[in-house]
Specification:
Blueprint lengths: L2 H14 L3 E5 L2 H11 L6 E6 L5 H8 L3 E5 L10 H14 L3 E6 L10 H11 L2 E5 L7 E2 L2 E2 L6 E5 L13 E5 L2 H11 L21 H32 L12 E2 L5 E4 L3 H10 L29 H9 E4 L7 H21 L2
Parallel strand pairs: 2-3, 2-4, 4-5, 5-8
Antiparallel strand pairs: 1-9, 6-7, 6-10, 8-9, 11-12
Helix pairs in contact: 1-7, 2-3, 2-6, 4-5, 7-10, 8-10
The structure holds pyridoxal-5'-phosphate (PLP).
């Protein structure tokens, strides 16, 4: 918690356009601290997308609350606001758990549909924690990712759009009371000083060395984001009509944590690219409702068809701001070859 940590917090707050930033040890701890700030525990229901990294839902369950999964909009891969409303109504009608909040995820860098989500928060008295671990740097109608809910969280894991050299995370809010509470939760529930503990917290410190790395990388971040836009455009120009390319709604800017295509012939594409030593990845083969860790929630196959179909068809291509034109062309050509030429060669 050296001076670089405080300096980073003020720079990140400025970048995001938010009053308070609390850095912490990871994107997972950022979510955990945010949920703890809202006092989440047994008997509470927190809604989230089934098509996300495990951390988003794991923290809900670790606090003894119940994750309630919601299907995605198949075009954006983000939580479907209409299905979210149905899920909230369902929990309310059943009365087993108390509906407390929603964690929308800005998947692959694209901010979720906050204009539809925030009114639900008001209507049902729910908190919104924006999981911007992948979305940091993205924009929703003029506002930065991380600023779109009551609390925003992000991750600085090296694979994220703004990565440090290890683990790190940050939390954003305009609510001074929540900010103070989360500052305390990060440091074992400290009160006026370190050895006065007014609540139970965690060791959520960000290392000073990571803050120093991030201070330097933040200077480059705007140009890196611009490079990611350019690379995504080049992919889309080369691949449109051959595979399903990412859909970016009007007024939104993705931070392109991932560039993910959809195709029924994923295996062929992955093998073809692999032969040329071009790495690809599948996020996420299994939606969370079908993960063994959540089997106790008794979801079954076909509960969330859009997420399940995405899990079978999605493929993420190489994406980082230093990809060269020749490398992009190689990826595009590899996919074209796998899907067009092979198909044509079948007698
Ligand atoms: C990476 C990630 C996290 C967790 O971040 P860590 O820093 O790895 O703990 C949470 N949510 C999403 C959507 C992520 O992609």
């Amino acid at each position: 918690m050296g001076p670089e940590v405080r300096e980073l917090e003020s720079r990140l707050a400025e970048f995001t356009g938010i009053d308070h930033c609390i850095t912490c040890s990871s994107g997972t701890d950022a979510l955990l601290i945010a949920l703890m700030a809202f006092g989440i525990g047994a008997g509470d229901a927190v809604f989230t997308s089934t098509f996300t990294f495990i951390a988003t839902a794991e923290v809900i369950a670790l606090l003894g609350a119940t994750p309630v999964f919601v299907d995605i909009d198949p075009r954006t891969f983000n939580i479907d606001a209409i299905k979210l409303k149905e899920a909230i109504e369902g929990v309310k009608a059943k009365g087993e758990f108390k509906a407390k909040g929603v964690i929308p995820v800005d998947l692959f860098g694209l901010p979720a549909e906050y204009d539809s989500i925030m009114p639900l928060a008001a209507e049902y008295d729910l908190f919104i924690i924006e999981d911007a671990a992948q979305g940091f740097g993205g924009i929703y109608k003029g506002r930065r990712a991380g600023s779109l809910g009551h609390i925003g969280t992000t991750s600085f894991f090296p694979a994220k759009p703004l990565g440090c050299y290890g683990d790190g995370g940050a939390i954003f809010t305009n609510d001074a009371h929540l900010a103070e509470k989360m500052d305390s939760l990060r440091a074992h529930g400290k009160g006026n000083h370190k050895y006065e503990n007014v609540r139970l917290g965690i060791n959520g410190r960000l290392d000073t060395i990571q803050a120093a790395v991030l201070l330097t990388k933040l200077e480059l971040f705007p140009q890196e984001l611009a490079a990611r836009q350019r690379i995504a455009r080049a992919y889309t120009e080369g691949l449109a009509g051959i595979v399903e390319v990412p859909f970016i709604p009007e007024g939104l800017v993705s931070s392109w944590a991932q560039y993910s295509i959809m195709t029924d012939r994923r295996k062929e594409v992955q093998v073809s690219l692999g032969e040329q030593k071009i790495p690809t990845a599948i996020y996420y083969r299994s939606p969370l409702h079908l993960q063994p860790a959540f089997s106790y929630l008794k979801y079954k196959e076909n509960d969330f068809p859009s997420a399940e179909v995405a899990g079978r068809r999605i493929l993420s291509l190489p994406m980082h701001p230093y990809l060269k034109d020749a490398e992009i062309a190689l990826v595009v050509e590899g996919i074209r070859r796998a899907l067009i030429e092979e198909k044509n060669s079948i007698p």
